[in-house]
Amino acid sequence: MPGRVSVVGFDNIFAADLISPALTTVAAPLATLGETAVRYVLALASGNATARRRPTVLPVELVVRESTGPRGGRSRR
Question: Coiled coil located at which positions (predicted)?
Fold first, then answer.
């Protein structure tokens, strides 16, 4: 089944490219994620009930390595 299964991780940890096959990951801005979460908690703690209603979208990056196969690789029997 190798070549028919893709594996993707999250956080782009430093060891992702050290293993074999190298792990494809989603790299998220963890510092910005933490700062945003703290801002929301502080806003809610200070009585700002509308803080919960504002969604925040943070940028992410797909770091493609060896653990994913080619796009559209469904096998046909």
Answer: none
pLDDT tens for each residue of 39-69:
888 988 998 877 667 688 999 999 999 998 8
- d(C-alpha 9, C-alpha 62), whole Å: 10
Six token digits for residue 7 = 């594996």
Look-up of token digits 């994620």: 33
- pLDDT, one tens digit per residue, over 7-45 is 999 989 888 989 999 999 999 999 999 999 898 889 889
Angle at 75 between CA 69 and CA 77, to 5 degrees: 165
Please report, as a single letter, which amino acid is at residue 35.
Answer: E
